[in-house]
Amino acid sequence: MDDKLNVWIICGGRSAEHDVSLESARSIASALDRRKYDVHFITITREGKWVGCPALEASAASALKGPEQGRNVSSSPPSPVWDGLRGLVGKASFPGIEKAPVDGDGRMVVFPVLHGPYGEDGTIQGLLEMLDIPYVGSGVLGSALAMDKAKAKEVLFHKGIPVPRWVSFKPGNGERHNGRIPEIVATVIGYPCFVKPANLGSSIGITKVKRPEELEEAIRLARRYDTKILIEEAIDGREIECSVLGNDHPMASVPGEIVPAEEFYDYDAKYADPGTELIVPAELSEEHVERVRHLAIRAFRVLECCCMARVDVFIEKGTGRIIVNELNTIPGFTEVSMYPKLWEASGMPYSQLLDRLIELGLERHEERKGLAVDRDESP
Ligand SMILES: Nc1ncnc2c1ncn2[C@@H]1O[C@H](COP(=O)(O)OP(=O)(O)O)[C@@H](O)[C@H]1O
Ligand SMILES: [Mg+2]
């Protein structure tokens, strides 16, 4: 029996960021050390079906070199919905779901590589908690809080962490703000402003609004993706990102800078525009580097994240103020993504970073397993 750890990568997902997730998953799969891990894939289709994904497995296999080539990549044919899930619940006793033991000695960890709703937002984390399966990344609360840009801002603001001025509302549900939004934006937020769906990523559904007459259309676009909308003041500043890693004692990487060629860091700038520059490490004063890293760790703790998150901030022109934009609990993991790049620049190569993330996921699971589940109060 081999003693490799089974790593289940779950990717795709019911999200507008489906394709980005597949890219991230491919790149993680090809960097995982096959001497330590057996790698398996589950792809969640846009419709929400769970399937085995031979295409990803093949591309991961071709990324392997030498005697390891293809050997440890499971070659299950395209499988019906429950195949992947049955593998996952092999250890759990769920009436009605047939058990299917995983390969090897059954030790396993799930690496959810899902961006956006139904994956980065606490939903899959909740499922894995219920199944008592260790996984990489933040738990239910941290994932859900960081995903909801409005809730995250509320909590960060409450703890004294600078965030842009914002207003959030649900268009058309009769909330207090409704009908008054143009007035609130004009008086409290100001123009230009950013209109966003509360829960998404990759800049999908986001508009930079420069004039009041563009507001309605921007809200309509954001509303396509979420029932809750956020409008925030535009910060005129540099976009700085910092990678955080750890559970109880998180560490921060060197910061990096994004310089989009376009007006802001929109979907094309992120994934298509060769003009977008990622500067690693960012050219900042030592004082700013330390302040960014310190603030990134504070924000990570305040939102109860663990394992990993990429913390994105602005450094405001003129004032030098550091303002938190958002935290991504499952950041991009493609070849060119900031999260692993920043760790590389901080002295931790990609495959070592993956080892550490897996370790952190296992550690947290172990720790929670030790918690009491009865009312016996003797120590
Ligand atoms: N308040 C803001 N001020 C200035 N630029 C912003 C602001 N909010 C968003 N942006 C721009 O829009 C991009 C995407 O917004 P963000 O909130 O990070 O959403 P996503 O989760 O899709 O990455 C940012 O990287 C930045 O370029
Ligand atoms: Mg962002």
Taking the sheet with the most strands, its summary is: 6 strands, antiparallel
What would the principal axes of the Cα set say about the shape?
A: globular
Low-confidence stretches: 58-82, 91-105
- State the helicity in percent bands: 25-40%
Gyration radius, rounded: 21 Å
N- to C-terminal distance = 38 Å
Return the structural class.
alpha+beta
The multimeric state of the shown protein is single chain
Q: What would the CATH topology of the largest domain be?
A: Rossmann fold
Could you walk me through the main structural features you see in this protein, from its secondary elements to its overall organization?
This protein is of the alpha+beta class and 379 residues long. It has 3 domains: 5-135, Rossmann fold, CATH 3.40.50; 165-233, 2-Layer Sandwich (Dna Ligase, domain 1); 237-367, ATP-grasp fold, B domain (D-amino Acid Aminotransferase, Chain A, domain 1), CATH 3.30.470.20. It contains 12 helices and 14 strands. The strands form 3 sheets. Strands 9, 10, 11, 12, 13 and 14 form a 6-stranded antiparallel sheet that branches. Strands 3-2-1-4 form a 4-stranded mixed sheet, with helices on both faces. A hairpin with a 4-residue loop joins strand 9 and strand 10. Helix 1 (18-31) runs parallel beside helix 2 (54-62). The protein is globular, with a radius of gyration of 21 Å. It starts with a strand and ends in a 10-residue tail after the last helix. The structure holds adenosine-5'-diphosphate and magnesium ion (MG). Residues 164, 194, 196, 200-203, 206, 232-235, 239, 264-265, 312, 325-326 line the site of adenosine-5'-diphosphate.
